Amino acid sequence: MVKAIGIIPARYASSRFPGKPLALLLGKPLLQWVYEAAISAQNLAEVLIATDDGRIAAVSHSFGAPVIMTRADHPSGTDRVAEVAESREASIIVNIQADEPLIQGWMIDLLIPPLISKEADISSLMAPVYDLKAIQDLNRVKVVVDRRGYALYFSRSPLPNGAIDFFYQHIGIYAYRREVLMTLCRLEPSRLEKSERLEQLRALENGYRIRMLAIPEPTLGVDTPEDLIKVEQFLKERN
User: What is the C-alpha to C-alpha distance for residues 25 and 103, in angstroms, rounded to an integer?
Assistant: First the structure.
């Protein structure tokens, strides 16, 4: 039987927002919002928090999350996820970003079937954006896909150039077949990955297939304290 697990990499240090996973959103740590969403997914056998920081571990334990302590020298969250995945019995690994408090369990569930059927090596999410002025925002990662939904390219630049109706914004959550994750983390950063500062391009440059699943609208990620205020306002209005 195929087993899928979710791993949330969380680090305290951040140049733009130190301590971000522990920042309070409507009185609850950002990390707790992500964890509670992840455990609502039907297709995950377990959800773990991976960190090298005792403060994050302590807060995670306070809301009942299992924690795996990792090395402190990982260059990316993906490498931290891979360290934890190496010791787990699971054939599908979902890397769930710790700064996506509006992610929902059903979104995570979408990622699993393409990997079970082996029609893809990696799966991820995207959402249509109809405000074409937003295509110029370098912080919004865009993706173009083929007719079957496989990623052709990711970029921070406007993509596709000259879009007249909408573009797809990438939502940074990934599911990997276990052996693909392990191989990717052993490979050197690729040319396009370094140029765009997008590690998923390493997978494309090495011939891996990334299946993109569409959700109705983008989530609101948190990169800065200002983003946290925006998410809080969104949740208040929704409620």
Answer: 14
Tell me if 172 sits within 8 A of 107, measured CB to CB: no
Helix runs in the chain, H state only: 30-38, 54-62, 77-85, 105-110, 113-116, 178-186, 191-196, 200-205, 225-238
Residue type present at position 1: M
Supply the pLDDT for residue 213. 98
Closest CA to 39 of 120, 79, 94: 94
Give residue 216's pLDDT band: very low, low, confident or very high (50, 70, 90): very high
> In this structure, are residues 6 and 108 in contact, taking their beta carbons and an 8 Å threshold?
yes
- 109 CB-contact burial (10 Å; exposed 0-12 / middle 13-18 / buried 19+): middle
CATH architecture entry for 4-238: Alpha-Beta Complex (3.90)
Binned at pLDDT 50, 70 and 90, residue 186 comes out as very high
Alpha-helix runs per DSSP H in 158-224: 178-186, 191-196, 200-205
DSSP H/E element including 154: strand 151-155
Residue pLDDT, tens place only, 23-76:
999 999 999 999 999 999 999 999 999 999 999 999 999 999 999 999 888 888
With beta carbons less than 8 A apart as the criterion, state whether 84 and 50 touch: yes
Residue 96 corresponds to which tokens in the numbers above? Answer: 């769930």
Report residue 239 CA to chain centroid gap.
25
What is the Cα Rg of the chain in Å? 17
